[in-house]
Sequence to fold (528 residues):
Amino acid sequence: MGKKINRREFIKQATVTGLALPQLVSQVACLRKFKQPNIIFIMADDHACRGISCYGDRLMPTPNIDRLAEEGKRFDSFFTTNSICAPSRASILTGQYSHRHGVIDNRLEFKPRRPTLPQLLQQAGYQTALVGKWHLKSSPEEFDYHFVLPGQGHYYNPDFIEQGQKIQEHGYVTKIISERAIAWLKARDKQQPFFLCVHHKAPHRNWMPDIEFLDLFRDQNLPAPKTFFDDYQSRCPAAKLQEMRIADHAYLAYDLKLFPLEERQLTEHEQTGWEYWMNVFGRLTEGQKKAWEKAYRDENEEFKLKSKKWTEEELALWKYQRYIKDYLRTVASIDQSVGQLLEFLEKEGLAENTVVIYTSDQGFFLGEHGWFDKRFMYEPSLRTPLIIRYPEGLEKGVDRENMIINVDLAPTLLELAGGEIPCWMQGRSFKKILQGKKVSDWRQSFYYHYYEYPAVHAVRRHCGVRSKRYKLIHYYYDLECWELFDLERDPDELNNCYGDPEYQEIKDRLAQEILRWQTELGVPEDEI
Ligand code: SGN
Ligand code: CA
Fold:
């Protein structure tokens, strides 16, 4: 028997081995026998599966994203490993979990110690560009070209940083990003394959739609999820202690577009929201402001007249309507943009040899449990859309079974591009799955870890494991509490069966599974 090592020793060894290997990454792939595909990686910000019609929900039609799915493959079991922006983006770039690439929350700067996906693709002969949201604090020098939003960016008349230079654009963010992406495609070097990232701001908070979609859903009532009035019984205290309830934490002006606000509505909380609102609304031109005032005026007047008489439930449901409609209106622009890109590829004869990916940095709560935002390991924020179209060579259809995670994207794209997958990547290429082949040793569970607490929305730190049927969550740090869900019997995750003797064996097995993954992935034992 070999020498038994403890977790700390295991992690140390894994790190040391990892450090010695960048040199082993393949050099320029100039003599490849196959034609390297172009890659367009479209990533929205906070786009939940339920906000895409081909994912089965009827909230709104997204014909262009659906078309991509019809011509490609839709993954129903794609998950993020830390449901928040910067960590997820860094995982996509590195193929590593948060603790390994170092960006465990949105507050940290991305300082990669090894070549990231665009650099590895450059080594494989690609030209690379990033247009849209970056959010990793550093300057995205690893791309040949960047045109990025500073920080979270703005919906209207946004600033951008183009190759290090700040400029202000006029118009709506999703349109500008699409135009700039297409402009880069037109000007690219046609001798080289390309990797283009189109990273949208929408549908991120505060959900400001383009003027052309302000009237979408007018006079319609969109269904609220059945868990909207969740009372959090049986769950750990974290579910109650969050600060992301539509009814309580969405700002009237900034989030729900109730403007102008009356004196009585200006609590301390609303004063903050009002300042945020003035900041974003102040960016609009006079013409844009007029269109906004016209679009919201009647409903806001009605709210002013009637809301004093409403019950708490009625008020919460009104807020939900405003929230979900604005969220989906911003999605309408994303769908439009996907259509424009697909059309461009066709027109240029690029459709056949371009892999087009549609995804998001994570999922989002669209009113489930009464919430907006993400962070929790619950399904609406954990599950993330993933659609891949590559007309040459990949199988079409829907993959419901295989659990794919965000760290798998980098190795997969590298393999599709004919590059080599460096050993420091913790994800695994799912190229075979894309080709419709059965991969018998594919993972049966995956590990999740959320760290950003204390912070906005007050979601407690937790880690956990999800298998096809079960999910075990461990809240630690300021809480010590466990949740176990049987997703087959309880897909909405309302019934924590951690204490149920019927689940004793499953609970123990999953707890072992958490430890196994922590060891394998090198998760530090001490809090980070
Ligand atoms: C901002 C939002 C939060 C959101 C984080 C992280 N507030 O702080 O609601 O959770 O971003 O989002 S806002 O008032 O600035 O809109 S993330 O997608 O970047 O992780
Ligand atoms: Ca996000």
Summary: Residues 1-32 have pLDDT under 50 and may be disordered. The chain has four domains: 1-33, 37-207+328-443, 242-324, 448-527.
